[in-house]
Amino acid sequence: MPPRDRPAEEVVRPMPARSKITQLPPEIKAEFDRLLISKNFSGYDGIAAWLQERGYDVSRSAAHRYGQGFEARIAAIRIATEQARAITEAAGDDAGATGDALIRLVQEKAFQVLVKMADLDPEDVDFNKLTVAIAKLNNASVQQKKWMAQARSKATDTAEEVVRAVKKNGISEKTAEEIRKKILGIV
Q: What is this structure's pTM?
């Protein structure tokens, strides 16, 4: 087997440093996040000073970089929430349509995260949580589809029972069929 050609010096790109914000203790980071939200993602000098008063060496620019990503995530959650609300209002919840639509919406968002993985710092992504979330979404989707199939089956069985009962009482075939269609939601 011939030797592979390799450049004399391979270019090795160092991984970016982990964000100092993500390394803060959970209670400090939670308070930092609350400060960002309460200050409407502005006043980074003051927020960096607040961290420095507590003994954490975090620059204004590091706080701002983290804040930009955090603000974008909050905006995405707001948009997803508004979309879910719009879906609920538009579709109602006949046969779990809302749940199905919400699952699809979350699956789409998870897919967008996977597509953007190349642009993310691997240190900022918890792959275990991401794969667990995707597995849970897929399970929820399967369960939703099973529930919808069972609901359709029960509605069909009920419609047939009602049709048999009304025919027994002398109602016409046409009226019985209209009742069956109403129960099944066929217009």
A: 0.46
